[in-house]
Amino acid sequence: MCIFTALPSQFALNSRRPTADQLAGRPVPPLSLFFPAMDGVTGRSSDERPTVLVTNDDGIDAPGLRALVGALVAADGYRVRVCAPDSEKSAVSHSITWRHPVAVKRVDIDGAEAFAVSGTPADCTSLGISNAIFSSVPDLVLSGINKGSNCGYHTVYSGTVAGAREAFFNGVPSVSMSYDWVGGKSKVEDYTLAAEACLPIIGAILDRIRNHSYPNGSFLNVDLPTDIANHKGYKLTEQGRSFFVMGWRLVSSEMQGGQMLSTMTMDKDVAELPDMDASTMSAEHRLFKREVRKSQVDDSDMDHQCLQEGYTFRPSSKIGCLVYLITSVHQPYSSPIFIYS
């Protein structure tokens, strides 16, 4: 086990690593209108394969991360690295560890070089792209696959989205990915299908990166529908404004009151327990549990609506600002071609 302490980064916001063309003084091609169709990155020698770093907020043992890593390794077109929290860190947003060091421990994951970190998703991404534990900066950072969707304003709370945002802050292309898990309906095996649905998107992004036409100043958020086996295709959407109205309930212990499965999902695996009478609790020490009171969703919200309709979608944003509008739809598992406005 190693211990690392965070230091101020040398990167400036929105900085990018210079490409080979830039270093040689050659012109960089302008932003094209399309993501070229691509079914994944295969057929390269090991030295030529792009490097992807995988993180999440559900923890390094979470089935969503393991399914994504498994799909990347099986594709045999990527050098796969993992730097993820050693325990669940859902809904921690973009919190970082500053005053104390984080512990890093090597973990065995077939086909990948992997480390578990005692910090947050943002810590994991920062460490993974810093050359502290890996020998080079990755070509792409992938955060997920999260248990539960991340639509609308919930992206602010999401540790999954923060894992991608941290890479964006440091000039590394990144994507956050979430599966719309529904308790009692979704199965662990669905993560494998979700990972397979993400591969064409990952391949298309890396193709753009190689061609120096990946859009600067943005990172991507991908959400996959519950019925992933029959998802209708890919859409590029606006980020919506959906959110949950929260409240607080007095409880008798830290174990009482249910458990939020994700930033966005209201389903709970444990039953609701009745409210406690405040008179039974000590005046000096009371415990309150956050809970969802109601969901507020505008019918016009593009991301949430598309997800409910069964599409895999990608809002694309600049630190919370809207960038790209809805575009074309393609057949399930076909290579995505995204049009930028």
TrEMBL record:
One of its GO terms (molecular function) is metal ion binding. Belongs to the SurE nucleotidase family. Keywords: Hydrolase, Metal-binding. The lineage of its organism: Eukaryota, Viridiplantae, Streptophyta, Embryophyta, Tracheophyta. It comes from Eucalyptus grandis (Flooded gum). The keyword Transferase does not apply. SUPFAM superfamilies: SurE-like. Residues 52-242 form the Survival protein SurE-like phosphatase/nucleotidase domain. PANTHER family: 5'-NUCLEOTIDASE SURE, PHOSPHATASE, PUTATIVE (AFU_ORTHOLOGUE AFUA_4G01070)-RELATED. This is Survival protein SurE-like phosphatase/nucleotidase domain-containing protein.
